[in-house]
Amino acid sequence: MMERKSNAFFGCLLMGVLLIGILFLHSRYRIWTESDALQQRREMVRILGLSDLCLFTEARYTRNPSLADIHTPFQDHPMSFEHFPSGSLVEPPPHWLQPSVN
Question: Where are the alpha helices (DSSP H) in 1-102?
Fold first, then answer.
């Protein structure tokens, strides 16, 4: 028996709508569970008058380490040395130091 193309389309559409709904529910759950941390960050931003956290002005991976990817310091060459002084002062974010479970 041949399935109609419209059934496949509506199946994909339903899966997409369900996925978007799950993403909205997840974001609300994260806001609800991390409301204290969000409130502390809002208070720090209000007190310091920050638009975004900027620790150093040299390299983009030292400006806000939580937003940089792991390979950014080595973008020129995988074995290149750190050539910005601030890179030696900033520790990697804690989630980079945890071993990944594969």
Answer: 5-33, 35-48, 60-63, 94-97
Query: What is residue 99's three-state secondary structure?
Result: coil
pLDDT tens digits, 77-97: 666 666 667 666 767 667 767
Contact predicate 60/90, CB 8 Å: no
Q: What is the identity of the amino acid at 99?
A: P
So what's the pLDDT on residue 24? Answer: 95
Residue with tokens 């995988």: 78
For 75-87, b where at least 16 C-beta lie within 10 A, e where not — what string?
eeeeeeeeeeeeb
User: Could you give the C-alpha distances from 87 to 10, 73, 74, 76, 83, in angstroms and in order?
Assistant: 51, 8, 12, 15, 8
Contacts of 89 (CB under 8 A, 6+ apart): 56
